[in-house]
Amino acid sequence: MTGIVVQDVSRAFGTVQAVRGATLRAEPGRVTGLVGPNGAGKTTLLLMLASLLAPDTGTISIGGVDPSVDPLAARRLLGWMPDALGAWPSLTARETIVTTARLYGIDKPEAAVRAEQLLALVGLSDLADSPAKVLSRGQKQKLGLARALVHDPKVLLLDEPASGLDPEARVQLRVLLRRFAAEGRTVLISSHILSELEEVVDDAVFLVAGAVVDAAPARSMVRAWRLRLAG
Description:
The chain is α/β, with parallel strands linked by helices. The chain is built from 7 helices and 9 strands; from the N terminus they run βββαβαβαααβαβαββ.
C-alpha cells in the first residue's frame, strides 16, 4: 500500500510557524483534497512530503518511506507538481519531458515514447515543439502535470493544479484525477478554492494557520439538490 501518513508535523521559518502539528492520511485509490486559504501552510506541507523541506518535528511516511531520511527512495514513489512550473524556459515541451525522464534514469528511446504519451494525455501534443517560455499559465500547468507523471509514480502531490486552467481543461483535469485514483495511485491535491475540489475528491483535509482543523469524507461537502418532475 503506497499511501501518505503525516503525524504531528511542524515546520517554522524563523519566528513564523508555517505548519503546526499537522496530522493527516491520504489513501491509495483515493483523491484527497488539501483545502485552505492562501498562507495556510499547504505548500510548506507539500514541500515536506516531496522531500524538499525537512520537518522540525513529527514524522512523514510515503509508502513506508520517510522522505527526510531517504529522499531518493521517496522520490521514486512520488510525482511532484509545484504551483509554478519552474521549467527550463528555452527547452520545448517535448525536451522538458525527455530531460526529466533521463534524470530518472529512463533511457532515450523510452523517454521519447513517454514524452509523446504524456503530452497527448495532457493535451499538449500540438505544442510539443514550443519552448516553455511561450506557454500560457494553463499550458505550463499541463506541462507540470506531464512532468510529474514521467516515471509512473504511485503517489501524486499536486499544488494548485487547476490554477490558470480554462473551464474545459478543468473538466479534463478532474477526469484525469479520477483515472489516477482508479489506477490505485494516491493523489493529494491542494487548493484554496473549495469548489475546485468538491466534484473530484474522496476525502478533504482543511488547513488553517498551519493546523489541520478537520479531515472528513468528501460526501460531507456534497451539495444537496431537489428535483421536481414536470406534471
